[in-house]
Design a protein that fits this description.
Layout: H1 7-18, E1 28-30, E2 33-37, H2 44-53, E3 57-58, H3 64-76, E4 81-87, E5 129-135, E6 141-146, E7 152-157
Parallel strand pairs: 4-7
Antiparallel strand pairs: 1-2, 2-7, 3-7, 4-5, 5-6
Helix pairs in contact: 1-3
Length: 162
């Protein structure tokens, strides 16, 4: 049974599927975004490379509207944990997107990012949580995770002009 709170998110997916004429055939289209979701789980680094090989980028989210679209797709596809393109791999506690663009919108869960501000020394249990995932257990709020975990992932590209 679909709850009332999830119904609008499912409608986003249905509408996105209908409007996919400017995205590749196996991609979903939201407003100004094409999205592809993996059917397999892998590590963050591999997900980043797979997206790059498809002339796209490991998913990034720049607004609440985009976050709602991504969440709706993930709920509809029954994905539990999904990598995004956000990380603090270069500078601990300084999260940036795949292109090193500054973050203008976030949707971290309470207490996240858990590694933010940690020192990175051997006694710091959270210091190696450098890659950001959207997790069903957090209502798809963001959390920093170990990059070597196996999660689903999503790729993003701009729709082509036709």
């Amino acid at each position: 049974m679909v709850t009332q709170t999830r119904l609008p998110l499912l409608l986003v997916v249905v509408l996105a599927t209908v409007a996919s004429s400017t995205c590749p055939s196996d991609w979903l289209q939201g407003e100004d975004v094409c999205m592809w979701v993996s059917s397999n789980k892998t590590k963050w680094y591999i997900a980043w490379e797979v997206c790059r090989n498809m002339d796209s980028h490991l998913g990034f989210i720049e607004s609440q509207q985009e976050n709602d679209f991504v969440e709706g797709v993930l709920v509809a596809l029954n994905k539990s944990e999904v990598w995004s393109g956000l990380s603090d791999l270069k500078v601990e506690g300084s999260f940036v997107w795949w292109d090193e663009e500054a973050v203008t919108y976030t949707n971290f869960a309470d207490g996240e990012p858990s590694a933010n501000g940690h020192t990175g020394n051997d006694t710091d249990e959270y210091a190696d949580q450098d890659c950001v995932a959207l997790k069903h257990s957090n209502n798809f709020k963001w959390s920093d995770e170990y990059c070597f975990e196996d999660f689903y992932y999503f790729c993003r590209m701009d729709p082509s002009e036709e």
